[in-house]
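Title: Prediction job returns without error message
Component: structure pipeline
Severity: low
Priority: P3
Assignee: unassigned

Description:
Job completed but the reporter wants confirmation the result is attached to the right record. Sequence as submitted:
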Amino acid sequence: MKVHLPSIGIGVGVIVAVIIAVSLFGHGIPNPMAVSTEQQSATLDKTVSQNGLSAKDTLSLLIDNTSPVLGSDNAPITMIEFGDYQCFFCNKFYHTIEPDVVKNYIDTGKVRMVFKDFVIIGQDSVNAAHAAHCAQEQNKFWQYHDELYNNWNGENTGWASSANLLKFAKNVGLNDTQFGQCMAQSKYISTVQGSLSDAKGLGLTGTPDFFIIAPDKTITKIEGAQPFTVFDELFKSKLK
């Protein structure tokens, strides 16, 4: 599956960059923000384009290898999270910040969200990410995503073992035979590894990181599990 305004004051630890968005076609994300060839070739801010990538290539790193969309396909803002299911701060974001984002912006049709795997903690991170994509075979990516975070128990503690991943599948009502076959065949490992490569291509070094693609065809990067007020102020500024 398949972007800031310098004056909104959204807090310490937030990294902001302005780029011109390119077409968001394919890979499960609709294309409400397609722009001209001239815009696609616009120079990127060095903060985002650290490796001399074109606008088109940078957008590919953001919108390839994602989860299905959470929220309305017609939402004016797209929020992309790079996360690791074993990550402490990803788990913190999920439990303390994401519920307010969902309630105020995703459920109201203002924001749509996708998740990209940045599996940097251990093998269980890879296995958990792969399991979520296997769950999508049965249209339950987000249910499984939630189940993973609701069973989080530290980094490399064994909570995301193969046995537990199968138990989580049963908990969300998946056909365990189909799920087990998907896991055994490593059907989506290329998606997980591709997303990891995308994150590295963007110069990311930790999780979670967020990229907000706004209606004005700009991208804002938010680094870390920032308070809800950070997301709230940004969303409000982009929806004016």
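Comment from assignee: result matches the submitted record. The chain has a mean pLDDT of 83.
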